[in-house]
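Hi both,

Apologies for the delay on this - the queue was longer than expected. I finally got the pyridoxal-5'-phosphate-bound model through. Below you'll find the protein sequence and the ligand SMILES exactly as submitted, and right after that the structure tokens for the full complex including the ligand.
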Amino acid sequence: MTKQNTAAWIEKDRKQLHPTYHPKSHANPLVIERGEGVWLYTTDGQKILDGMAGLWNVNVGYGHEELAKAAYDQMRELAFTSNFSGMTNLPSIALADKLAGFAYEGLNTTLFTSGGSEANDSAFKTARYYWKRRGRPGKYKIIARKGAYHGITLAATFATGLEKYHSMFGPAMDGFVHIPAPNPYRYEGQVKAGETIGQAAARELEEAILREGQNSVAAFIAEPVMGVGGVIVPPADYFPLVRAICDQYGILFIADEVITGFGRTGEWFALNHWNVKPDMLAFAKAITSGYAPLGGIQLSDQIRETMESAPESEAYMHGYTYSGHAMACAVGLKNLEIMERDHYPKRARELGKRLLDGLKTLSEFPFVGDVRGLGLVCGVEIVSNKETKAADPARTMQIFKAAQELGLRSRPLGNTLAFSPPLSITADEVDEIIKRLGAAMDRAA
Ligand SMILES: Cc1ncc(COP(=O)(O)O)c(C=O)c1O
């Protein structure tokens, strides 16, 4: 691309509409030219430590030669071909084979999509398909959680439990029900005497199933660690209870591991922290470390079986042009090879502990209410008063901006600053995040 000054790029950029656009939030965008490791370089000469790995996804860091080569080689061989029923290609076969049982035992079938929203839409449709095939067509509702983010297609929007994503796109789609999430710092549901927050939040699921009617609920969807909702790490008792309730009432459990998948939390997939298996898994983002758009769902053998026995009139009429995209799957395969070879989940565990411990030292600031995380995904919640836990989104933005001026990219989520750097980050670079954030807090204090 020809070199021109940043103001000219920004002027030209007005011809594209950006996700979650508002003129105020996009008044002075960073124009990124290049990335290397955890570092981003802008057209106006800034060097920024990307504490978010793009959007939680660039696990192996920027500028990885092996991934570039995998894409190049596959594009030359075969970039794309239809993957609709009756045709297939080698990289999608190899990646689906690699993924069989990789995340969870018994999840052996993959449908590929281009990203996470499509994955979740596919999971909802597959849940409905499954129950229709099982002679239970009335089971169509999805129970999700308040604060959840499941994406931006119409169904994923209304599965999302954040009102700001709904208000300009209503009326709400029928069939999505939201219950409180087990937020240990500020749980919004009722905790009965003798109950833990995990038990109280799991009870909300049972009550919602009974309220809506067991015969109308198809599935429950949850992010093992909530991302956009503010990096919420659940108590250890929550997901085992959720699994038991789903089993008791015949509800499919969909794990949305679009952020937590592929090593981010220190396990390859996050429900493994609590020895829980879902019936369906949605993945995207780090499957290719962001080097190609790719996502998908994995299905339990039981769900797969309903497809094998279907009459032709009940074919699974779902899928995308780019399901099983040859180049994207080749990149995904190479990316998994790199993450296995370089022990990325272990890195996330060890460096995640360093990051969390370092961030906790910032609790001395009077406005740091809570610091939490699992592996290399952490959140720092900013409050105006530690006793009342009153939210302080204005100061959160102030710290976010100060950090950006100091060359550190985080993400403000309400009143939480999120950190989710590439898993390739070094110990020194982790320390750099803490140093720069501390300096940004000094400025904001
Ligand atoms: C948990 C979760 N699910 C789904 C999505 C949607 O994925 P995509 O933006 O690839 O459609 C996201 C995106 O951030 C996410 O964080």
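Main takeaway for now: The pocket of pyridoxal-5'-phosphate is lined by residues 55, 115-117, 120, 149-152, 223, 227-228, 256, 258-259, 284, 295 (CB under 6 Å).

I'll put the files on the shared drive as well.

H.
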